[in-house]
Amino acid sequence: MKKILVMTCMVFGCTFAASAQDAPGITAKDRATHLSNKMIRELALNNYQARKVNEINLEVAKQMLAIEQQYAGNQQKIDELCGGVCAVRDTKLENVLSTVQYNDYYGSRKNLVALDKQYMAEATMARTGGNGIASANNPETMTVN
Prior knowledge:
The protein is mainly alpha-helical. It has helices at about 1-20, 30-45, 45-70, 75-95, 100-105, 110-125. It is built from 6 helices and no strands. About 10% of the residues are buried.
């Protein structure tokens, strides 16, 4: 009887572990769309610019996701390589945006990178089923009863 119970638990454990690993993660398209929508609003882009910015951000998001997967656990290497990818994005955006828009973008670049990192952290937390406990590092998640 004990053997059957143990076997049943093992089968359920393996099934749940496999389904947890197959949970869909954030896609490059989701990541690019989130960032592009923010840029479209803040920079008041026209339709042509919005389409081009979305294409550029999609290309960058694909590259960044590949880097993050390849170098998982080595944040310094990820930051270094993603910085290079973002520099290429800056060059491409310079050809799409007006001078005023590019200056606004360039000035808010750090905020946009932080927004992207926050979006990815929240998506990862949601995917892994965060524990709902507020962190002192992120006061926006704290609630007072």
